[in-house]
TrEMBL record:
<dbReference type="InterPro" id="IPR052184">
    <property type="entry name" value="SDR_enzymes"/>
</dbReference>
<dbReference type="Pfam" id="PF00106">
    <property type="entry name" value="adh_short"/>
</dbReference>
<protein>
    <recommendedName>
        <fullName>Short chain oxidoreductase</fullName>
    </recommendedName>
</protein>
<dbReference type="GO" id="GO:0016616">
    <property type="term" value="F:oxidoreductase activity, acting on the CH-OH group of donors, NAD or NADP as acceptor"/>
</dbReference>
<dbReference type="InterPro" id="IPR036291">
    <property type="entry name" value="NAD(P)-bd_dom_sf"/>
</dbReference>
<dbReference type="InterPro" id="IPR002347">
    <property type="entry name" value="SDR_fam"/>
</dbReference>
Length: 251
């Protein structure tokens, strides 16, 4: 039985992760800690239907005190057991239509997308060290790829790209520090999703599709994924614009 913690679980991809995880048999997923600044009605309904397997934990990723308190609450709920999988999903994306020169959201984006991931990961490392899987997945995007920057330039979200690239670098540093302990840290690209963050109906996939395909990787064998930047695999989409071919995206 595996335990999960998902940040930013009130809506979008985070909510879809919780939905997909709790739909799995209890013998496979014993607990899902769904963290959010403010729980949504949809998340609260999932709790009611989960037979106790979904637990809402209040957590604000830009507030270290909130994160530390959340870690204490999760530890109590686990009753001496470790946390198996952490999914750093909470993120922010704002659009700057007049280009990088008018970007004024970099500090806030960095607080959420980089510092938030660092603070949450650091706070939950002790519980993950007691877990059986020791997986930390930080949700990224191929928009953060410096190699692919020219192709991604059409998307007017420079602060998002810059901070997700920094988050990718953070992921690699954690991967190197903890590889000897059997950890797997990865920056995972779930595809272009029809969420508020992702751009709505213009995108390729629903949040539910992105969550399901991401979980194929998250729940799969960990071998070779530490410090990597995998993309989802969707048959028939290998040669499309975003190439959902399961390969590692270039940094």
């Amino acid at each position: 039985m595996v335990s999960y913690l998902v940040t930013g679980a009130a809506r979008g991809l985070g909510l879809a992760f919780v939905q997909k995880l709790v739909a799995l048999p209890a013998e496979e997923v014993c607990a899902v800690f769904a963290t959010a600044r403010t729980p949504s009605p949809e998340l609260q309904e999932l709790v009611k239907q989960s037979s106790g397997r979904v637990v809402i934990i209040k957590l604000e990723v830009t507030d270290e005190a909130s994160i530390k308190q959340a870690a204490v609450e999760v530890e109590k709920k686990l009753g001496g057991k470790g946390l198996d999988v952490l999914i750093n999903n909470a993120g922010v994306c704002q659009y700057t239509m007049d280009g990088v020169k008018s970007m004024d959201d970099l500090e806030h984006s960095f607080s959420v997308n980089v510092l938030g991931v660092h603070w949450v990961t650091r706070a939950f490392i002790p519980l993950l060290q007691k877990g059986t899987q020791k997986k930390v997945i930080s949700i990224s995007t191929t928009l953060a790829s410096i190699t692919l920057a020219r192709a991604a330039h059409v998307s007017p979200a420079p602060a998002y790209k810059i901070t997700k690239a920094a988050m990718n670098a953070l992921t690699v540093q954690y991967a190197l520090d903890y590889e000897k302990e059997g950890f797997t840290f990865m920056a995972l690209s779930p595809g272009w999703l029809k969420t508020e963050l992702g751009g709505g109906d213009m995108a390729d996939l629903t949040a539910e599709e992105g969550a399901a395909l991401s979980l194929d990787i998250i729940r799969g064998p960990a071998r070779g994924l530490n410090g990597q930047f995998p993309k989802i695999y969707l048959p028939g989409w290998e040669n499309t614009r975003h190439q959902y071919d399961g390969s590692n995206a270039p940094w």
